[in-house]
Amino acid sequence: MNSPSIEDYLKAIYKAEELGDVSSQDIAQRVGVSPPAVSKMLRKLQALKLVRLSPKTGIHLTPFGKTTALTTIRRHRLIELYLVRELGYSWDEVHDEAERLEHHISPLFERRIAERLGHPEFDPHGDPIPTS
To answer: What is the mean pLDDT of the chain?
Structure first.
């Protein structure tokens, strides 16, 4: 199992890749850490075969890294929707709560949330929920 920190970095890289090239500075800003901390984590992610680092092409998720990022994003968005629909949270309250919970639910719990919600396609903010 990956640590919450690793999952947060993978999510940040995934979201940055969607917008174009990924830089260490962009990741630092998204994760809220210093550029040296990003460099250290990138070496760790590379050793775990979650990212590819290239002087020419930059930072890229491997297929395994992308799958891990999408799983974390899926869990986050399902939790947000569950909190709104089932527990009465307002849509502007759910992000921080989902950020904490996304790292700690099991695949079974994730499936049960999806079933309970009718396998939704979008979270409360209108963002697409990745498929399992």
So the answer is: 93
Residue burial 8-31, b: 16+ Cβ < 10 Å; e: rest:
bbbbbbbebbeeeebebebbbebb
For residue 1, pLDDT beyond 60: no
- Tell me what the mean pLDDT of segment 18-37 comes to: 90
* 36 Cβ contact list (under 8 Å, min separation 6): none
Torsion sign (Cα): 9, 13, 16, 22: positive
Asked if 4 and 65 touch (Cβ cutoff 8 Å), the reply is no
For 106, phi then psi, to 5°, come to -85, 165
119: number of CA atoms within 13 Å, CB side? 2
What pLDDT digit, counting tens, does each position of 76-102 carry? 999 999 999 999 999 889 999 999 999
Residue 10 CB partners (closer than 8 Å, separation 6+): 2, 45, 50, 61, 65, 68, 69, 72
pLDDT bracket for residue 67 (50, 70, 90):
very high
